[in-house]
UniProtKB/TrEMBL annotation:
This is DNA methylase N-4/N-6 domain-containing protein. One of its GO terms (biological process) is methylation. Keywords: Methyltransferase, Transferase. InterPro entries: DNA_methylase_N4/N6, RM_Methyltransferase, SAM-dependent_MTases_sf. It comes from marine sediment metagenome.
Length: 151
């Protein structure tokens, strides 16, 4: 199923929280319901580990693409036609020029199992360092996620 950043994802059977973590990583709002309170610790473990893995993957995607772009230009002896304006990396198609990859930088447990997630831009620069630059709240900001662990 297709969704865009800011959309709502409903998970009526929260279970271990994998859909919740995927929504957090992708910048979606998520509402999950789990009637078995025994899953609460498992869900929190999923959030911790899943968000770290998602962040590693985002940085890896940028580094892998930068390596690909450099090797492509060296092999073909020609520069790629487009440059991603957000990450300042050469890209193959015009569709990629505004693509941005984000990283989870804060997860706050609010009252009644509401979680607030803050994302920032994961940015790659030509000196091969990875930096984080903040987004304004109106651009990406905080996403609210809800867990209902009551029976």
């Amino acid at each position: 199923m297709y969704s865009m950043a800011g959309d709502y994802v409903l998970d009526p059977f929260l279970g271990t929280g994998t859909t919740l973590v995927a929504a957090m990583a992708a910048g979606r709002n998520s509402i999950g319901v789990e009637i078995d309170e025994g899953f609460e610790s498992v869900i929190w473990e999923s959030i911790q580990g899943g968000c770290m893995a998602a962040n590693d993957r985002q940085i890896g995607r940028l580094l892998e693409h930068a390596t690909f772009a450099a090797e492509y230009e060296k092999r073909k002896l020609v520069k790629m036609k487009y440059v991603n304006l957000v990450h300042e990396i050469p890209v193959m198609t015009r569709q990629e020029i505004n693509l941005s990859l984000n990283k989870i930088v804060a997860i706050q447990n609010q009252a009644n199992n509401w979680i607030s997630v803050t994302h920032e831009l994961c940015n790659y620069h030509c000196n091969n360092s990875v930096e984080l630059q903040g987004f304004s709240e109106s651009h990406l900001g905080n996403h609210q996620l809800a867990l209902d662990l009551t029976g």
